[in-house]
Write a structure and sequence with these properties.
The complex is a heterodimer of chains A (98) and B (220). Chain A has one domain (12-91): Winged helix-like DNA-binding domain superfamily/Winged helix DNA-binding domain (Arc Repressor Mutant, subunit A). Chain A has a three-stranded antiparallel β-sheet. In chain A, a hairpin with a 6-residue loop joins strand 2 and strand 3 (71-76). Chain A is built from four helices and three strands; from the N terminus they run αβααββα. Chain A has helices at 12-22, 32-39, 43-55, 78-96; strands at residues 28-31, 59-64, 71-76. With 98 residues, chain A is of the alpha+beta class. Helices cover 52% and strands 16% of the residues of chain A. Chain B has one domain. Chain B is built from eight helices and one strand, in the order H-H-H-E-H-H-H-H-H. In chain B, helix 2 packs antiparallel against helix 3 (75-97), helix 2 (41-62) runs antiparallel to helix 8 (186-214) and helix 7 packs antiparallel against helix 8. Chain B starts with 17 loop residues before the first helix and ends in a 6-residue tail after the last helix. The relative contact order of chain B is 0.14. The chains are: A alpha+beta (98), B mainly alpha (220). The A-B interface holds A 1-2, 5, 7, 10-13, 15-16, 19-20, 22-31, 33-38, 40-43, 45, 49, 73, 75, 88, 91-92, 94-95, 98 and B 1-6, 8, 10-13, 16-22, 24-25, 28-29, 31-33, 35-36, 99-106, 165, 217-219.
Amino acid sequence: MTDELDPLIHVPTRLKIVATLAALPDGDTLSFTRLQDMIGLTPGNLIIHLRKLENADYISSEKTGNGSASRTTAALTSRGRAALDAYTQALRDLLGGL
Amino acid sequence: MNPRPDTTAAGNGGTFDPRQAAALLDQTTQQARRQLEPAQPWLLVIRAVVALAIFGAVWLNTRGQHPYQHPTAAIIPVVITFGLLNLIATVTVARRATAGLSGKSRLRPAEIAVLAAIWIGVYAAMVPMAGAGVSDSVVYGLYPVTVPLIAAGLAWAGITAVRADWRGCGVGLAVAVTGAVALSAGPAGAWAVAGVGLCVTLLGHAAVIVWQQRRSVVRP
């Protein structure tokens, strides 16, 4: 029944990450620590899921600065936004048929 | 909020059914919209009530003056205090909401400088106006109520239009229209019109934000 749903997004934690980043205004990025705070994940868990999404080019991340001043930010790519739109549409279709 | 590990049984999508996914998508989106919103609706409602109270108080203070002179000295510190409190509360809430956020939606220093110059400039212009013998009804009545609203409203509408932030653009235009309408209400009436106009604008802004935040992404 869930074959139409993108398996990369159809995981609670990654769905939360993608949905949170999709709520950002276009062209904005969110820091790793704020994203972690909003989703309520451990840093290790968040990194694992971000890496999977980044490997699929659904999100982009950027690290600036060095040492304690370093800052990592993440944003949804256009490919990631399109994937979430397709996922949302697939959910609508499934729920309409349920 | 305490970080928690991703230990759900559906961690790999196995038992994560579409209904749960739809609920989680809506819940997460709405929560993110609320947390990232720099203009919190509750603060807008408080600001609406305060604007109505302050501008209304000045209107009550000046409406019996024939000819119009100026608001009495007792009310001016109250207006300035509430203006500063409004600015501090707005900036504090916005900074908390946008912590960790960077990019196009943040105001650039040049844009902040333009807005600050407008606010300072329009009030600084009152000094030479008074010195040049312009009537009290303009210097202490129509001008300080209407011109800042028109100038700041139009500047805000312009800045937000460039960013394609149509909600912000609408708010800026509504503020400018409030100032323009107040121009026709006379020096005392301008305070009342501005108070009601700002109150309606702020309440409308709060209502739009709440509607946008609660909108479902799965069931449009």
